[in-house]
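Dock zinc ion; give full complex structure.
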Amino acid sequence: MESYHLRRGQVYAPCGQPEDAVTRYVRIVRPGGKRVRIADAATGRREREVDVNRLHEFPTRNGVERRTGYALVETREWLWDLTDRALRQYPYTVSSTTIGQDVHRGGCVRLEPQPAVEAVRILVATLEAAAWTVEPTTLYPDELRVRFQGQSRCPSMYVAPGDGRQYCTRWRGHADEHQDDLTLYQWEDNAPQPPAWWVPGQRLPGTPASV
Ligand SMILES: [Zn+2]
């Protein structure tokens, strides 16, 4: 499996935390070299540099839990934690996420029970604070396409029958067919549809305020 350790945007959790502590996840802002620039994952604030040796690919070493530094976490888990906290006071949970480890590829999230604008707003604000781009998907009215810093990339996705999802990895507004560089699958254009539960006239996530 491909390693995402020490890549930009990847999320890490502090090692050796007490069980009941609130995890303060960090993300990599600038990788490379002996010093790695990190920031709080949820807000992008508190940028600082750490020695590369403090960032671990796995939370254990020789079967023993690490007590210092930070360990790479599953992007999916971090996103669940982030959105669960945001929605804690509300009767909604995020369900059926399909989020891979590659933050730039991202995935999509769905709210349960019936999505409401209130919950979607909270979700969008939370994800945008974490520098994730949120958009309606091209497939399902109650799903949101989410990925890290995705403003410049095409939002189109596609599900082949009996197959996984394909996410277009080309630039936004490209003229040729959509292509997923991971699966090399190509498909025809399909424009994002505003979700049915979205208030008419409201700015859709991912669109400029002037539109
Ligand atoms: Zn595309």
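Observed: Residues 11-73 form one domain.
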